[in-house]
Amino acid sequence: MPSAHAGGPRSDGGAEGAYSLGTAPVSPVDGHDGAMAGLEGMEQPRGDGRAIASRWSPTVEDEHAVRAMELYGDPTEGEVPLPSLPESAAIARRLVQIVILRRWGLPPKFTEDAVLLVSELVGNAVRHTGARAFGLRMRHRRGWIRVEVRDPSRALPCLMPVQEMDVSGRGLFLVDELADRWGVDLLSHGKTTWFEMRVADR
User: Fold this and answer.
1) Which residue among 83, 170, 184, 189 is least crowded, i.e. fewest CB within 10 A of its CB?
2) How many CB atoms lie within 10 A of CB 55?
3) Which of 125, 28, 25, 31 shows the shortest CA–CA distance to 79?
4) Mind listing the pLDDT tens digit for each residue in 139-181?
């Protein structure tokens, strides 16, 4: 299966493909969400959205996260399809939140980083693919977690250097900074963009 990657080797043992450098730019369940990176923040620098984001904490599980799991499904049991709409970024964040905090019992700071990164991947899928839907899936194996966002476009997301004052194009920069590994697997119809983060064995 063709693949384009960055940040490390494929975890599934598949053949490595070419990595592409370029640029890819970087809501609410029941109207309850903060302006985190991705869609609703209008591509503001990460620091500028922190005061607004305090309305919702990715490290404190709430009833909206529980409801998101009930309505949309468990991304650890199979791919969860979500509509390609700005508000789906919030749904994806809450699904990642409840899985990491409740199911996997990982630390709050780890949860915060993973929630930010999935927001960036969903933002790219919604804004740049023209798709009606995308899929979210999460996996956990010894020492690692993996989050995948699948969409029907084969256009590769790209990474370019970002300056401190840039107000756009920060999405994959954050993924590259915070994830231990990330990449893109090309499919016969579309692609899967993924990131992996190392966790301490318990």
Assistant:
1) 189
2) 11
3) 125
4) 999 999 999 999 999 888 766 555 444 334 456 788 989 999 9
Instruction: Please give the order of strands across the beta sheet that includes 181-187.
Output: 3-6, 181-187, 190-198, 144-151, 133-141, 80-83
26, 176 Cβ separation under 8 angstroms: no
CB 183 within 8 A of CB 124: no
> Is 79 in contact with 136 (CB distance < 8 Å)?
yes
- Please tell me whether residue 145 adopts helix, strand or coil conformation: strand
Q: Which of 75, 68, 82 is nearest to 104 (CA)?
A: 75
For residues 60 and 111, is the Cβ–Cβ distance under 8 A? no
Indicate the pTM of the whole model: 0.69
Residue 121 in contact with residue 195, Cβ under 8 Å? yes
Separation of alpha carbons 45 and 40, rounded Å: 12
